[in-house]
């Protein structure tokens, strides 16, 4: 009898849970976990329980999120909408999610983020926007994300980042901008990120880095700059990093291996807090005779030609100077000798 009663209670509980669960979705833990993955939804399903803290809408065909879509789901902590063909986020589409901590919008087709994209997301800590089609990050897109610690923007088409785009991200610890199309990394982009420990900029088109670009980053541990278009470096760029220890990734760049590059890398290697993790994998792209050569094997020879040239020039100058001095001394003696001869000549008296 007791066993039958327990079974009946389980059935009633399951029925109650199913009534609270959106059609075609699965709900777990008294509808706290709502699984709507791969159901072919073209819009957010109705009937999501107000007490849900995880909602998985991945692998659907949503195309857009309308304004105030999530009104009423006040307890939501995790929202997963990756790989769902998202193209448009209407104004304040996520504004109702004031307790959301993790948002995954990866593997979609987003081209832009509205200026009010982050409105209402003050509790968000982890944001994934990787594998989209973003081209520009506007100044106010992340303005309200003061609790954000991880931001993944990799595998987009980002060329332009407006000054102030990251201004509100004062708690940010990890920023991934790899696999984009940025041509330059200017100073002034990361002025408020004093807690940032990981900055990944690999696989872009970065050909130059302004000297003060990383100066505000007082907690940086890892800086990835591999697979860009860097031909040379300024030592000051890394000397300005005041963190106790930082690991650099610099391989797969088209380095022009000359004496100046040797000097820069030599200085970096002699600073105890700077570590080049992939130094043995750095190869020369130019000049042509050195293409493909390992920098670590060539660095001691890069200044030989320059040193030889300097020595030749120095020797030439010294020879010229010595020759000039010798010539001057010869002329002086000759002049003195001529004057002596003139003094010893007898005076000729002419008679009248």
Which regions are unreliable across 5 or more consecutive residues at pLDDT < 50? Answer: 1-18, 307-315
Give me the strand/helix succession. HEEEEEEEEEEEEEEEEHEEHEEHH
Q: What is the helix tally? A: 5
Any idea what the shape is? elongated
Helix coverage percent of residues?
Answer: 10-25%
Task: Report mean pLDDT, rounded to a whole number.
Answer: 86
Strand content: 15-25%
Strands side by side in the biggest sheet: 1-2-3-5-7-8-10-12-14-16-17-19
Find the structural class using helix and strand composition.
alpha/beta
Largest sheet: 12 strands, mixed
End-to-end separation = 171 Å
Cα gyration radius (Å):
35 Å
Give the tally of β-strands.
Answer: 20
Can you put this structure into words, describing what you see?
It is a single chain. Strand 16, helix 2 and strand 17 form a beta-alpha-beta unit. This protein has five helices and 20 strands. The longest helix has 41 residues. The radius of gyration is 35 Å and the shape is elongated. It is α/β, with parallel strands linked by helices. The strands form five sheets. The chain has a twelve-stranded mixed β-sheet with strand order 1-2-3-5-7-8-10-12-14-16-17-19, covered by helices on one side. A two-stranded parallel sheet has the order 4-6. A two-stranded parallel sheet has the order 9-11.
